[in-house]
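Kindly inspect what follows.
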Amino acid sequence: MQRGVLWRWVFMKSLLRALPFIGLLILTACSSVQTLNSSSQLFEYNESQQAASEIFQQWGDVLKRHAENNLKGENPACIQSSSNDCQLHEWKEFLTELKGKPAMEQIMAVNDYVNQKTYKLDRENYGMNDYWATPMEFLYKGGDCEDYAITKLLSLLQLGFAPDSMRMVVLMDTKLKTPHAALALYTNDDILILDNQTQDVVSHQRLSHYVPIYSINEKGWWIHASN
């Protein structure tokens, strides 16, 4: 993930625009709609589910565009081609080959596959400060950290992982002093983090330098606050 001053400024402006009252929300998070028990607290932070908002609408738009992309017919020219125009076809083939394999093997393979794609700023790709890409868009053009997380989530969803078990989490990396995003995968006894900054899939308990701000999936979104 790029760490330049301009990128940090752009990301933070976008985040603050989307969450204009984030400070107040964090201070009152424990009294919000729903708080999960300690065994499921991401990075050991309290979390509370929030009402619908611009953030949740943005997520819904990604899912809608992804569904529309998946309805498109396959390009026959892609059957024996590895050009950039065939990335979506190759992604679907990759997922088909993973079906039926052990869950952890699927998780690690998806993390590795997506992390091989090119990192690009939204400004470079789409001419705007903040854009959440579908897998088709990301696989064609590359993308930033949110796009890696979204493509990983939708990859695992297609492999049969439960929607409730996965969230994209927007956080602060206190080591690099920069905002970041990754995929959180909730298992029976842990929360695994799939991150474009590393090929390793690790427990959230090993990442003490990550401070979650909010997390989101198709069921809702959550604000995170310290205990």
Q: What stands out?
A: The first helix runs from residue 5 to 18. DSSP finds eight helices and seven strands in the chain.
